[in-house]
Amino acid sequence: MIEVHNLTFSYEKNKQILHGLTFSVFSGEIFGFLGPNGSGKSTTQKILTGILQGYGGEVHLFNQVLDNKSKELYEKIGVLFEFPYLYTNLSALDNLNYFASFYPPEQRRDVYELLEVLEFKKDYIKKPVSSYSKGMRQRVSMARALINNPQFLFLDEPTSGLDPTGAVLFRDIIGQEREKGTTIFLTTHNMMDADLLCDRVAFIADGEIKAVDAPKKLKEKNSNHEVEIDYLYQRKRSTITLEMQELKAGIPFAHDEIISIHSKEPTLEDIFIQYIGRGLS
Amino acid sequence: MRHGFLSLLRKDFKLMLSSKFLLLVFGSLILYSCYINFFYANLDQDIYPVYLYDPLGTESEVSSDVIQVSSISELQTVCADGYSVGIDVSGGEPEIVMITSKIESIDRYRAAYALMLLSSDDSSMAEIVGENNREMKNRREITCEFLFFELAAVGFLGLASTLFKEKQMGVIRVHGIIPISKTAFILSKLILFLLVDLLFACLITIINLGFFDGISVLPDVLLQSGILSMIMVLVGFFCAVRLPDFKQFSLLYLVLAIFISTPVFLAGQTGIDWVWINYHPMYHLFMGMKNAYFATPSVRIVYYIVSAVAIMLLFLIVYRALIREMAKEG
Q1: Disulfide: which of A220, A246, B50, B267 matches A242 by Cβ 3.0-4.6 Å?
Q2: What DSSP character marks residue A147?
Q3: Chain B residue nearest residue A69, CA to CA
């Protein structure tokens, strides 16, 4: 779906932002793009959406060289920006009808239905966006990204500004899009989103890709294969760490009751720090 | 595509309404028309009084507008106001006595007018190039000034205010990822503001010149308004896209209004004669407008070629500035 080969970009002379990125996004997958601030995530997304020109290397989208003048390209993609960019003097309905009008009628989704899926408060549909909370604006932004039934969805921090219920809803919607066959390029700081949603993730830092793989495989590769067991023995509570191999023949120590067994598998954030040398913030 | 462009036009019109731009335009029209009709049209300044000292009676065919005086000292006294013009014929030949206005061209008009009154010879009479009475001359002059100001300053400000709103809301960059061209984004604003400006030009001309006089100059007034409007809208677009906030824009607006438009009005409406003003593009646009109002339209092909090239160049500059704005960080 996306083929990027040796992608370079500089905003100014001697200030290279991207140093030869190479990666692919396969059809129907959710590809997470993780990196700290200033790592080149947004620049990469802007290049992929045709907003930034003047890059080096090759970018293929839908098996064609990226052409930012192609109307067809923009009919096939949907973009959710980090901030909810909307006409605040217009209502959610007017905003969505306005943006929908640029797509072929047979491709457009029903605005009311879409807002219902996004659990948007009905009595606000015709009120100006200026009266909405951040979460409501984010819902309208998501509706705008989905209004054209995109084949490829670019999502930049989709759950930022949402309460936990909203974040769960957004993850469900992103999951549903994947089931429909939509390919998703997810840029995020949120490791939980990446871990729960992404089929593969890329770690980017200083304009270079440090690792690309499925979150599960990354965790496996970097795991020390240990478990932590919390147990009671002779009324005394203790914790022990064992190699998983040691559990093959059963629990190898005296105990009266096992309270819990936890895998000591690293989180995606641990792996990220391991590769990049620092956290996301 | 056509439907998408209509959506852009509708959205821009809504933004225009919410920014109260149309209210400002309508308010200006009422204010200008009241000023023209209740004050400026009836402004009546007497023509220069001409005094003659002719002790030998040399001048036999003198206009009845000339006032005779009996001594050279009396002539000097009456001319001390800096406005009146005196003619001393005591030496046989007419000599002009007057306090200079410090503007050479005006002094020349005063002297020429005074000498014309001495002779009944038709060959020295001023050529009549139109049939404007003083009131109609005033109306054409001030309507032209107001229209020029409205298009150059108010339209420019109106476009910037709507574009700054879009910038603040961040929606400009959304247009970078939807299937509509950047050209259409610029054109929709250009067309909308052009239509409002042309409507304003139409109304102010007909209201203040009267229906028949207004209609007779309207085609050329609309042509000149169209040129000025497109240039100013594109300049406003560029400034609004490039400048970070409305405060900086307001400063630029002041500079533009005071230091650019003022010399143009001075050179175009008074006798002030500056050679350098010929290199001022706004001066030519103003004179184009003035000529249109006085029914002596400019036929200089160079003027139209330069205007067309300027509009095309500005469009390209705006296009590039828009692409840069779309790629900016959030």
Answers
A1: A246
A2: T
A3: B181
Which residue of chain A has the CA closest to B163? A87
pLDDT at A63 over 60: yes
From the list A230, A234, A224, A220, the residue with the least C-alpha distance to A251 is A230
A235 and A204 within one domain: no
Q: Is A170 a domain residue?
A: yes
In a domain, A281, yes or no: no
Q: Give the residue-averaged pLDDT of B250-254.
A: 84
Q: Give CA–CA dist B278/B275, Å, rounded.
A: 6
Nearest by CB: B177 against A77, A88, A101: A77
- Tell me the count of A-B CB pairs closer than 8 A: 69
Q: Are the Cβ atoms of A74 and B179 closer than 8 angstroms?
A: yes
B236 and B142 within one domain: yes
Partners of residue A93 in chain B, C-beta under 8 Å: none
Verify whether the Cβ–Cβ distance B178 to A87 is below 8 Å. Answer: no
Q: How far is CA B160 from CA B155, B192, B236, B313, in A?
A: 9, 13, 6, 19
Q: How far is B193 from chain A (nearest CA, A)?
A: 20
Which structural domain range is residue A254 located in? 224-264
Q: What is the pLDDT of residues B61-115, one digit of tens each?
A: 788 888 888 888 898 888 888 888 999 988 888 888 888 877 777 788 888 888 8
Looking at CA atoms only, how far is residue B315 from chain A in angstroms? 18
Closest CA–CA distance from residue A51 to any residue of chain B (Å): 6
**Residues in chain A within 8 Å Cβ distance of B180:** 102
**Is residue B244 within 8 angstroms of chain A, CB to CB?**
no
Contact A90/B177, CB-based, under 8 Å?
Answer: no
The per-residue pLDDT for B109 is 82
| Domain limits for position B82 | 50-124
* Secondary structure class of A146 (helix, strand, coil): helix
Percent residues over pLDDT 70 in chain A:
99
Please tell me the distance in Å from A87's CA to the nearest CA on chain B: 6
For residue B124, pLDDT over 70 is answered with: no
Q: Are residue A40 and residue A108 in the same domain, yes or no?
A: yes
Q: Name which residue leads in pLDDT, B79 or A146.
A: A146
Residues B302 and B223 occupy one common structural domain: yes
Q: For tokens 């010879």, what's the residue?
A: B121
Interacting residues of A236 by C-beta distance below 8 A, sequence separation 6+: none
